[in-house]
Design goal:
The protein has five helices and 14 strands. It has helices spanning about 170-180, 255-270, 270-275, 290-300, 320-335, and strands at about 5-10, 45-50, 65, 85-90, 95-100, 105-110, 115-120, 150-160, 160-165, 195-200, 210-215, 240-245, 280-285, 305-310. The chain has a six-stranded mixed beta sheet, with helices on both faces. The two termini are about 15 Å apart. Helix content is about 15%, strand content about 25%. By secondary structure, the protein is α/β, with parallel strands linked by helices. The structure holds guanosine-5'-triphosphate and magnesium ion.
Length: about 325
């Protein structure tokens, strides 16, 4: 599911350095010829896709990117140095548009994809260039050309990093509302959520946002269209991790049975999704006693599953859950995407 993050910024290429008007002046050579060199070209601004960046947050702090001007030409036919280029790193999947016309200029998808956002101006020509048989001492040189400038708009499609899955009423939306600023509808009846919802979890120590998707509840037979069906699973196909939310307040063997029902539906959808890294989130632990919690935890752990116990409603265990997500995001950000 796509959630669009946006940023607007200004880019300007460096101006070309001006050409120089100069004449050779040395002792004993009273009337030397023209020797003014060319100005250097202005640097250009490039956008380059990098997997080290995961959000457009940096652009909220910086909105102007300007490449260096070319150095003017000098006497003794010395050319001015070219201005340095400036490379602005953007996240993979950045769509670049002209902010005014809305025209799509580039789609930077893969690591290293580059786009010239603003060309530097050409350097001016020194007076050496204008010497002719008729005019051996031209006093003419050209100024450098100005660098290109424009406002750009970046659009980034955010893909969900974390998918919340579970039966209806398990508390997925409640959990999303506690982990992010999203305000999904929450109610004590099944199929409250009808459309996938996204929330962004921000960690204190860096600006990698973690995008969490809450999808409608699945029930047995979802793969055959029962309930709302399982078409929403496509929104979490590319997540790094799934949180399987389970209503721990269910009686007897219900939590475990529910777990298996849902896992079966996932497998019916795609083996790949069923094999995705996942955590069991035993929710609603405010409604059960310690012994029951210990029993459920042991049951899931006994099957080699990682278990986190929370009460989304009362905020119990959420700090630990956030830490876990931060760890997963950090590991994932170091792997090639
Ligand atoms: N006691 C208790 N109730 C909870 C907790 N979390 C959620 N609930 C309640 O469970 C009910 C369902 O919560 P939702 O967040 O809407 O559940 P959902 O999984 O999003 O449900 P669907 O959108 O229908 O799939 C609501 O009445 C919530 O108030 C919890 O930790 N403890
Ligand atoms: Mg919901």
């Amino acid at each position: 599911m796509a959630f669009i993050d946006e940023a607007k910024f200004f880019v300007r290429g460096g101006d070309g350095g001006r050409g120089c008007v100069s004449f050779l002046r040395e002792k004993f050579i009273p009337k030397g010829g023209p020797d003014g060199g060319d100005g250097g070209n202005g640097g250009s601004v490039y956008l380059e896709a990098s997997n080290k960046l995961l959000s457009l947050n940096d652009f909220h702090y910086r909105s102007h990117f300007i490449a260096e001007n070319g150095v003017p030409g000098m006497g003794k036919k010395k050319h001015g140095r070219a201005g340095k280029d400036k490379t602005v790193h953007v996240p993979l999947g950045s769509l670049v548009k002209d902010a005014e016309s809305g025209e799509v200029l580039a789609d930077l998808v893969a690591e290293g994809d580059r786009f010239i956002a603003a060309r530097g101006g050409l350097g001016g020509r020194g007076n050496v260039r204008f010497a002719t048989a008729q005019n051996r001492a031209p006093r003419r040189a050209t100024p450098g050309q100005p660098g290109e400038e424009r406002w750009l708009r970046l659009e980034l499609k955010l893909l969900a990093d974390v998918g919340l899955i579970g039966l209806p009423n398990a508390g997925k939306s409640t959990l999303l509302s506690k982990l992010s600023a999203a305000r999904p509808k929450i109610a004590g009846y099944p199929f409250t959520t009808l459309e996938p919802q996204l929330g962004i979890l921000k960690f204190d120590y860096d600006n990698f946002p973690c995008v969490i998707a809450d999808i409608p509840g699945l029930i047995e037979g979802a793969h055959q269209g029962v309930g709302l069906g399982h078409k929403f699973l496509r929104h979490i196909e590319r997540t790094k991790v799934l949180l399987h939310v389970i209503d721990a307040a269910g009686e007897d063997d219900e939590p475990w049975q529910n777990f298996q029902t849902l896992e079966n539906e996932l497998r019916q959808y795609k083996d790949e999704l069923a094999d995705r890294q996942r955590f069991i989130v035993l929710n609603k632990i405010d409604a059960i006693d310690k012994e029951r919690l210990a029993e459920l935890t042991a049951q899931f752990k006994g099957h080699g599953l990682e278990v986190m116990a929370v009460s989304a409603l009362e905020g119990i265990g959420l700090a630990e859950l956030k830490d876990k997500l931060a760890e997963i995001m950090l590991t994932a950000s170091q792997e090639p995407r």
